[in-house]
Specification:
208 residues; single chain; elongated; mainly alpha; 8 helices; two-stranded antiparallel sheet
């Protein structure tokens, strides 16, 4: 509490934390809605909400998450606990939101799912569920070249860190992308070879 109070005093003239009988407490003159507490409330509400209303709750949680909790104080054990819980809640909401959007099977929602899943993998690259959702979104948007580029990077990442492979669904998406992308590359190579052969054989004679 002392470190937090000191940090707040540097960034604001207002005393958010005061001392009362040798104990630190929030200034009773202000009303605060703490995003961490609000995310926890929304997570509890999510568990009791039917599927039809869950996506909006996920969006609300995603808007609240602004990254690690007090990164300037990340070495303190109490901030690490808050940050870890907030990250887990965010990832749960991000994964659910991406999955609900992909179920709608239209490009606009797939594009939104791609955005959410991509951010989730940046927050936690080793979250398998987020990586699967990212590949599902790329598949829905027919981003074949992106799948081909991303697959070896992500598989190496998981193997080097955990010694495990991604689910078979991701491999199936990669094979889908390779089947079409690979054929297209082979066709382009064959056309280039044919053009080179024509260029050599049908080159105009001197003086033509």
């Amino acid at each position: 509490a002392y470190s937090l109070r000191k940090w707040l005093q540097v960034h604001s003239d207002f005393h958010f934390i005061v001392v009362n009988e040798k104990n630190y407490q929030l200034n009773p003159d202000i009303r605060l809605e703490i995003d961490f507490h609000r995310m926890a409330e929304l997570a509890c509400e999510l568990e009791q909400t039917p599927d039809a209303g869950r996506l909006e709750l996920c969006f609300a949680m995603l808007q609240l998450y602004q990254g690690d909790f007090l990164p300037e104080l990340s070495s303190r054990s109490w901030t690490a606990a808050f940050s870890d819980q907030a990250r887990k809640t965010y990832l749960m909401a991000a994964n659910l939101a991406a999955e609900y959007l992909l179920e709608r099977q239209n490009r606009a929602d797939a594009a939104k799912a791609l955005e959410i899943a991509n951010r989730a993998t940046l927050v936690e690259p080793y979250n398998q569920r987020a990586q699967v959702n990212l590949f599902r979104a790329m598949r829905a948007l027919e981003m074949k070249s992106a799948v081909v580029r991303q697959y070896p990077i992500v598989t190496d990442l998981f193997f080097n860190r955990t010694g495990t492979a991604l689910p078979g669904e991701v491999l199936s998406i990669y094979q889908w992308a390779m089947d079409t992308t690979g054929h297209a590359m082979e066709d382009m190579l064959r056309i280039r070879q044919d053009l080179n052969a024509v260029s050599k054989n049908d080159r105009p004679g001197q003086g033509a």
